[in-house]
Amino acid sequence: MKWIAITTLLLTMPILPRADILSVHCPAGCPTNPDGNDLVFGHLYALSNNPTTKFSDWVAYEVDVTNFGASPGRNWKEDPLLDESKTLEPSDYKKANRELKIDRGHQAPLASFAGSKYWPELNYLSNITPQKSALNQGPWKDLEGAVRSATGFRNSLYVIAGPIYSDDYGVLPRADEPHKIPAGYFKIIYSANGESAAFFMSQAEDRNADYCTLKKPVPEIQAMLSFSLPALSDYRTIIERLGCTNNGEDILLD
Hints:
CATH superfamily: Extracellular Endonuclease, subunit A
Shape: globular
Helix content: 10-25%
Structural class: alpha+beta
Low-confidence stretches: 1-18, 248-254
Number of helices: 6
């Protein structure tokens, strides 16, 4: 009789909606946090670290002119908030550039936070992924610069970025623990009111590729991911703000 009563109680209890992940780093709502991932809120960004791939599935941050400054340098460290088994170590990237032409690529860019006293957090390996040098130093860097140029005082932009995996893309030559190198990356730039522009860049992008040609509709990015993005819509205003023209494409709305 007791089990019948418990079952009846469970069936009649209201089904509560899943709680949103709320943070100043993602005012439209953060992406969902996949099962098994560690959700980390730093001073300058929020991220969802995947212990299987050893990299963050997404990193969310605000680009605000008050954080700009001269580049302070790079001092790679493990994220002190994460268990050492869940991310790579600085030594795991040894000879990656020489043998594979792979850089340590920032998801939240160091240049956007060089003026903050918390800039060392940008060099935690939870914010780093293996990126081909041509991509990291080409269209990925150019888009980061365009985002900074598009911001102003009290006129911030927000970004969600992360890796996308497909077939086995190989491993770092000196890493001593299982991991997965991404096949490409997404980046979504949006304003506080949810107007956005999305981009996808593969590891094979040419160094001189124009980031404007790599824009994708938000739904296409969502289809590549195993977690849910916040409700964002493609808008011509954000594309133009980033220095791109519309070229009459239907995916960009007024």
